[in-house]
Backbone:
């Protein structure tokens, strides 16, 4: 399993566990318990008159059960023999216990608005990308019992009913949510599930934290090896015949007698889904739902991007973030604190 | 089109910026990057008035037509008429950058200058404990792009040769710009001085 997947699922070796420093579940996040946050969000939805959907089946005590064991029992896995036999006391804990998963909260979908820049306190210039969260709402909560995995389906933007196929309209009607332009799923742990209709705003992320941003890169079309893979090419003159930008050799001789799979060749470049890791959030505007992040973000202006907490940052490297989301939204624009000296660049 | 609109706004700022804005936005203060002045003293921290002041910028620059468009950060489901996202995001960037310019012009004021003016620019060099350095020369180009505006200054140093330097207009490193004298020009960009004798543009 790749390192990224290990970190995301929590099924990692001892060394990575130490890196994550899996503490008790709510230590790195706000002091509010998921139960109280969920209750507050559900109360707010009830007050606003939102129709509770039948699809968002979120049991109240789901975080008290072990999700891994539940999944295994649902699939018909029989517990090992030593756990069943010779146990006189019924409250003896089973010897095989699933490792506690690192709590994982939802992300956001946003629209790439464009790039600008700012100068920090020391006068260092920071290139910035502006991301706009265009009313991102929870459409559906995917649970282990019903769907086989735990995730939140978020929707962003708006689309006219006329321009939407009937199947898509039916999906939103069943969820009881307004029609959205773009849907995306975010794998979460069960204690981070949110009721359908919850709006996630820009202050879901904290200024100064690191995030991963995923988007479809700019399409460059069919490109040659020099642009696509950075090949050096061949000389422009000195007798070179019609081979200035070619790849040159593609393999060995009779052995292996073939071209290996994955050989770098000309082809489609760009227009692929790519993730930029550990992007630093410079400024958050909760009132207007804007995020300023450092550096570049894949895709065009007007592109939809997925934003999630950085997977390659430890808990100690991130500031305190709201879990599972913010309950009371602020209105102050928050800028990340500048580094200690002028030559320390936060990456 | 955007360039010309921004140039007119920039002219307004450079001539009467501080007085107009101080009256309009009151005791507004900055969050970045001028919380620390160039001489090391700290400016007061940002107040809650920043939010209201920034939203007033949009109202100030909104066109005076009957069906005034709503703010570019309005959620799409609240819009009656929806233009393409790329257009709306371009408008959003324009509004955000003009807000940033308004914030900066509260502390930065520059004289009105153009290509053909001999300038003396005082900068604070960050690599040298923010000591003051002076750069003199002829302004050969002025690029009007709002928040991204720049100007290029050319000079000739004996024993060194010709030197050109391009400054970002709103950088916090520029402390003062002074116009020494002007020459008559019939162009906006004076790149022909690169092929002329240094005595014509040296100062």
Residues:
């Amino acid at each position: 399993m790749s390192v990224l997947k290990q970190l995301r699922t929590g099924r990692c070796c001892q060394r990575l566990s130490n890196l994550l420093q899996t503490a008790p579940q709510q230590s790195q996040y706000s002091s509010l318990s998921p139960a109280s946050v969920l209750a507050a969000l559900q109360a707010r939805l009830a007050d606003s008159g939102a129709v509770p959907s039948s699809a968002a089946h979120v049991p109240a005590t789901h975080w008290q059960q072990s999700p891994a064991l539940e999944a295994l029992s649902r699939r018909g896995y029989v517990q090992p023999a030593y756990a069943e036999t010779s146990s006189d006391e019924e409250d003896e804990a089973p010897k095989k216990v699933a490792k506690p998963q690192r709590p994982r909260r939802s992300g956001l979908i946003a629209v790439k608005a464009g790039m600008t820049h700012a100068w920090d306190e020391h006068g260092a210039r920071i290139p910035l990308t502006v991301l706009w969260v265009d009313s991102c709402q929870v459409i559906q909560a995917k649970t282990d019992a019903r769907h086989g995995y735990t995730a939140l389906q978020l929707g962003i933007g708006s689309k006219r009913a006329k321009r939407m196929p009937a199947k898509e309209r039916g999906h939103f009607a069943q969820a009881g949510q307004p029609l959205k332009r773009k849907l995306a799923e975010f794998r979460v742990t069960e204690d981070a599930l949110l009721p359908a209709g919850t709006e996630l705003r820009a202050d879901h992320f904290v200024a100064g934290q690191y995030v991963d941003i995923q988007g479809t890169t700019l399409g460059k079309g069919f490109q040659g090896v020099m642009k696509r893979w950075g090949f050096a090419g061949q000389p422009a003159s000195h007798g070179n015949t019609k081979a200035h930008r070619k790849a040159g050799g593609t393999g060995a001789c009779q052995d292996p007698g073939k071209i290996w799979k994955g050989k770098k060749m000309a082809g489609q470049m760009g227009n692929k889904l790519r993730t930029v890791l550990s992007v630093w959030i410079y400024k958050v505007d909760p009132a207007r739902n804007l995020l300023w992040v450092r550096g570049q973000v894949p895709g065009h202006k007007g592109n939809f991007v997925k934003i999630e907490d950085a997977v390659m940052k430890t808990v100690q490297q991130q500031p305190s973030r709201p879990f599972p989301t913010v309950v009371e939204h602020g209105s102050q624009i928050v800028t990340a604190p500048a580094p200690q000296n002028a030559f320390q660049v936060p990456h | 089109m955007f360039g010309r609109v921004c140039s007119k706004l920039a002219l307004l700022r450079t001539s009467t910026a501080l007085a107009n804005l101080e009256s309009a936005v009151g005791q507004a203060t900055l969050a970045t990057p001028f919380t620390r002045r160039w001489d090391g003293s700290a400016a007061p921290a940002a107040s809650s008035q920043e939010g209201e002041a920034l939203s007033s910028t949009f109202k100030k620059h909104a066109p005076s037509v009957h069906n005034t468009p709503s703010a570019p950060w309005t959620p799409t489901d609240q819009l009656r008429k929806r233009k393409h996202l790329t257009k709306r995001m371009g408008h959003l960037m324009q509004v955000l950058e003009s807000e940033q310019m308004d914030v900066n012009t509260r502390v930065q004021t520059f004289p009105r200058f153009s290509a053909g003016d001999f300038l003396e620019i005082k900068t604070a060099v960050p690599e040298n404990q923010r000591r003051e350095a002076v750069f003199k020369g002829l302004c050969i180009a002025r690029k009007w792009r709002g928040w991204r505006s720049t100007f290029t200054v050319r000079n000739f140093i004996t024993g060194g040769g010709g030197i050109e330097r391009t400054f970002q207009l709103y950088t916090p490193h520029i402390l003062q710009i002074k116009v020494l004298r002007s020459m008559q020009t019939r162009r906006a960009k004076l790149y022909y001085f690169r092929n002329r004798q240094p005595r014509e543009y040296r100062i």
Observations:
- Residues 9-54 of chain B have pLDDT under 50 and may be disordered.
- The beta strands of chain B are 117-125, 131-143, 150-157, 161-168, 174-182.
